[in-house]
Design goal:
Oligomer: single chain
Mean pLDDT: 81
Largest sheet: 4 strands, parallel
Number of strands: 6
Shape: globular
Low-confidence stretches: 1-11
Strand content: 15-25%
Number of helices: 5
Distance between the termini: 61 Å
Helix content: 25-40%
Strand order of the largest sheet: 3-4-5-6
Amino acid sequence: MLATMLSTIASPIAPTIDASPITPTIEIAPGVAMPRVNLGTCCGSESTNAFPSWWGAGGHGVDTAFDYGKEVPGGKETELTAAITKAGASRESLFITTKIRAGLDPFHLGKACIGLDADYALKAVKADLAELKVSQVDLVLLHAPCNSDATNAKLWQGLEEALAQNLTRGE
């Protein structure tokens, strides 16, 4: 029996390996290529120091959110904006992903998702753009969707309106 086990271990089935190179971007919508690797700016990541190094290494994707850094030093979008400017990166050369708060309840007050609707989502996107000092981002996500399909649908309608107003990219 041991000989059978050893022969199985010694001659495993050769795995199939895809030898094609991994592309640096992936198409997420027609004509919208997102970098596969992005710089995250959450929770004290000190984007004022991290972004220039990221940009200098050839990074082009930035992942942020309006609420990052509000409770924790570092990660504020205003700091990211200053770092982008200091590094000399143009808006056109960056892929900016941001998120609007939905189901997050950082203080456990039980108030996450209460009263959220399409208007909230649209206002959240606009507030995000103002803090980033840009007129458009490339991708907006719901940060922790709500437990209610109805609320998520309302928030999605607000994101669709942001797309209709050209506040985020569609193509």
